[in-house]
Amino acid sequence: MIIPIDNELMKLQGTGEAIPVSFTVTRTGNPNSITSPTQPVTVRSREEQPGGENGLTGPTFNLTSNGVLGPNENPDGADVKVSPYVNIAEGQKITFTFKGFDDFNNPIEAATYVTTRKLDEVDVVQGHVFKVPQINTLLICTGFAEASYTVDPVEGSNQSPANSTVTRVIVHMLKPTDFTCLSR
């Protein structure tokens, strides 16, 4: 049996990890009713999650003026920034993922880079710049890159893990004097 619960009623009860929920069944014409055992239910609101109601936006790359990840702007690897977001909190963990693709959109597994950072008080105010190692960008050479991140909440909070949107950019790491980047 499915018993729909009005959203306004849920909002009045609030959110938390152990909201007590029970129900009572009564038949028309029968004076006897029965109440279910109380069950603790976790209730979360999208407004309280990392990124708030609109969710987490994708990270931003340091790009050329025409939107390309290039060697002049990123000589020692790619700087990719996760900006402060709604409901950011010290102690949250961000798992950052960078993936590479060739010109034909085939994944380049060796270009994948994943790292995790526990946010501190500076990150909460300024965001955090992840440095993708230069070798990972050179392995792509020309093609595409994608970056995204997952926020894991502070233990004991009423938040769920949240995923950002994916940011996809064109990669062209060849310098004018280069014939090729690293061979794959």
**Strand fraction:** 35-45%
Q: What would you give as the CATH superfamily of the largest domain?
A: Immunoglobulins
Q: Quick one: CATH class of the largest domain?
A: Mainly Beta
Distance between the termini: 57 Å
Alpha carbon gyration radius: 24 Å
Description:
The chain has three helices and 13 strands. By secondary structure, it is mainly beta.
Helices and strands in order:
Layout: H1 7-13, E1 16-21, E2 24-26, E3 33-35, E4 39-43, E5 60-61, E6 68-69, E7 77-82, E8 93-102, E9 107-118, H2 121-126, E10 128-133, H3 134-140, E11 142-152, E12 162-163, E13 167-172
Parallel strand pairs: 6-13
Antiparallel strand pairs: 1-4, 2-3, 5-7, 7-10, 8-9, 8-11, 11-12, 11-13
In short:
This protein has 184 residues and is mainly β.
Keywords, please?
184 residues, mainly beta, Immunoglobulin-like, 2 domains, six-stranded mixed sheet, three-stranded antiparallel sheet, 3 helices, 13 strands, 11% helix
